[in-house]
Each structure stands twice: as structure tokens, then as C-alpha cells.
């Protein structure tokens, strides 16, 4: 996951990672893994990307058109 074990426990405790406690261990359901690993885009991320694309087209639209012709 690219983060420390302590960070994972903190995310579980805060609810950012959905996990179930079994004995002394935590289990993350397989269906939740894409969310945990960041492989699924949230609606907020999609809006952020769309905003960045619109800004890029607004600022560099003509340049992009010229590059597309080459």
C-alpha cells in the first residue's frame, strides 16, 4: 500500500479503510481493495480531473490543436 502499518491502523480506525476485526487481526474484504489501493476514482477525484482538463484546454487549447496537426 506504500504506507506504514501504523498508518493503515489509523486509517482503519478513522473509517477511511473499511475493515473487520477478527481476533487480534483486521480483515479487509476483497471487494474493498480497489478503494483501499486507490484504483477506483471517487466522484471528487473525477471532478478534480475534469476541472484540470478544462483549465488545460482553456489555457493551451490552440497549442494543443497545432500539436495535433503535426
What does this structure look like?
There is one protein chain. This protein has 70 residues and is mainly α. The chain folds into two domains: 1-39, no CATH class; 42-70. The protein contains three helices and two strands. The chain has helices spanning 5-14, 33-36, 43-69; strands at residues 20-22, 25-27. It has a two-stranded antiparallel sheet. A hairpin with a 2-residue loop joins strand 1 (20-22) and strand 2 (25-27). The longest helix has 27 residues, at 43-69. The protein starts with a helix and ends with a helix.
Broad shape = rod-shaped
Low-confidence stretches: none
**How many structural domains does the protein architecture include?**
2
Count of helical regions: 3
Neighbour order of strands in the largest sheet: 1-2
Question: Termini, distance in Å?
Answer: 41 Å
Round the mean pLDDT to the nearest integer and report it. 84
- Beta-strand segment tally: 2
What structural class do the secondary elements suggest? mainly alpha
Please bin the fraction of helical residues.
55-70%
Estimated radius of gyration: 20 Å
Strand/helix succession: HEEHH
Strand share of the residues? 5-15%
Largest sheet: 2 strands, antiparallel
Amino acid at each position: 500500500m506504500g504506507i506504514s502499518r501504523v498508518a493503515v491502523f489509523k486509517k482503519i480506525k478513522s473509517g477511511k479503510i473499511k475493515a473487520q476485526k477478527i481476533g487480534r487481526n483486521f480483515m479487509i474484504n476483497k471487494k474493498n481493495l480497489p478503494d483501499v489501493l486507490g484504483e477506483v476514482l471517487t466522484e471528487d477525484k473525477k471532478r478534480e480531473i475534469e476541472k484540470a482538463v478544462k483549465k488545460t484546454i482553456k489555457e493551451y487549447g490552440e497549442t494543443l490543436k497545432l500539436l495535433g496537426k503535426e
